[in-house]
Specification:
InterPro entries: ARM-like, ARM-type_fold, ARM_PUB, Armadillo, RING-Ubox_PUB, Ubox_domain, Znf_RING/FYVE/PHD. Its EC number is 2.3.2.27. Pathway: Protein modification; protein ubiquitination. The protein has 371 residues and is mainly α. Among the domains are: 55 residues, Herpes Virus-1, CATH 3.30.40.10; 116 residues, Leucine-rich Repeat Variant, CATH 1.25.10.10. It is built from 23 helices and 3 strands. A 3-stranded antiparallel sheet has the order 2-1-3. Helix 11 runs parallel beside helix 14. The protein is elongated. The termini are far apart.
């Protein structure tokens, strides 16, 4: 692509398109990394004129040329991006880069990092995380495309377990939660929720994210008012966080239970997974018991849901029936015992185990059988 661009866009040393053009005292322009490397090697002459330079040469940013290059929304050749991603990263870090040039850079980096673990590690080592966070900080409310591409790259960088803790330490959660709290696009909210799910794979991150002000509250708010995909991703993120014991009460305190139950009634089966986990805590069970028609909703999933939905509906009913005689009686009245007997030979091992557990509780009358 750069073969069709003006020669003065290229650094005289590297012969590549300049990302950070600077003027030497000789009057010639070079890409900062190239000329800095030349000077660090001890050279004190201009690479072009061979004339002597001061002991400490000053590098003056060539803002005019940099702006001109940006308007071309330049992208290096594919092999160059893979071997030298720093060029695109510098575009993200530069306050003078245009939105279009940043979007193009993010698109290229996201495409290459999606399936290439080695390239992701190279990006992280090259400072891509801080560049993406800087890019997110500089996004204005109307730059939806830029926000979406930055979040997509951040999601890719979070795929490797070795990077998950580092991303949180660098402040990724602050930016992600900010997107969940603001009225952004549906796609951006969904991406932000997915990033939380990815980061929460690491146990210590579950605690850190759950304790972050507004994180769980924002996910619950999306479950309540969001649209299709973002609601599914919010439910998945909430499930990941609530696998950590301390986060369950936080979710209940944010009003998650009634919102989840209404979501399940409306067909969001993924909400049953969160209900199954919240039913493990006393506060969650109390909210479920007070929700009218709770057992009927769970039984409907039990008889009509997917294997995963059935698995968590069984888990929730087992918790409720074990701790509440009233819930146990209501469950029996719904004919759940016969339904469970039909599930003990299910192909899914977890469904078989959970149905056997519920059968045991129902037959024992909830006599404090520990499952």
């Amino acid at each position: 692509m750069d073969s069709h661009l003006p020669d003065h866009f290229k650094c005289p040393i590297s012969l590549e398109i300049m990302s950070d053009p600077v003027i030497l005292s000789s009057g010639h322009t070079f890409d900062r990394p190239s000329i800095q490397r030349w000077l660090d090697e001890g050279h004190r002459t201009c690479p072009i004129t061979k004339l002597p330079l001061p002991a400490n040469p000053t590098l003056i940013p060539n803002h005019a040329l940099r702006s001109l290059i940006s308007t071309y929304t330049l992208l290096p050749p594919l092999h160059q991006i893979i071997s030298q991603p720093e060029t695109l990263i510098s575009i993200l870090k530069s306050p003078s880069s245009s939105s279009d040039s940043k979007i193009d850079s993010l698109r290229q980096l996201a495409r290459l990092s999606k399936r290439d673990a080695n390239f992701r590690r190279r990006l992280v080592d090259s400072g891509a995380v801080s560049a993406v966070l800087f890019c997110l900080d500089c996004c204005s409310s109307g730059e939806t495309k830029l926000q979406e591409k930055a979040l997509s790259l951040l999601l890719n960088l979070s795929l490797d377990d070795d990077s998950k803790i580092g991303l949180v330490a660098e402040g990724a959660i602050d930016r992600v939660v900010a997107f969940l709290l603001r009225e952004g696009s549906s796609d951006c909210c969904a991406l932000a929720a997915t990033i939380i799910t990815s980061l929460a794979v690491v146990e210590v991150n579950k605690a850190t994210i759950g304790a972050f002000p507004g994180a769980i509250e924002a996910l619950v708010a999306i479950l309540k008012d969001g649209k299709g995909r973002e609601r599914k991703e919010a439910a998945t993120a909430l499930y990941a966080l609530c696998c950590f014991r301390d986060n369950r009460k936080r979710a209940v305190d944010c009003g998650a239970v009634p919102i989840l139950m209404r979501s399940v009634e409306c067909g969001l089966e993924r909400g049953v997974e969160v209900i199954g986990v919240l039913a493990k805590c006393k506060e969650g069970r109390e909210e479920l018991e007070s929700y009218g028609g709770c057992v009927k909703i769970l039984v409907h999933v039990l008889r009509n849901g997917s294997s995963r939905g059935i698995q968590y509906a069984l888990l929730a009913l087992t918790s409720l029936c074990f701790h509440s005689k009233e819930m146990l009686l209501v469950t029996l009245q719904e004919g759940v015992l016969d339904t469970c007997l039909g599930l003990v030979d299910d192909d899914n091992e977890k469904v078989r185990r959970n149905s056997s557990n519920l059968i045991r509780v129902l037959r024992s009358g909830g006599n404090h059988w520990m499952y």
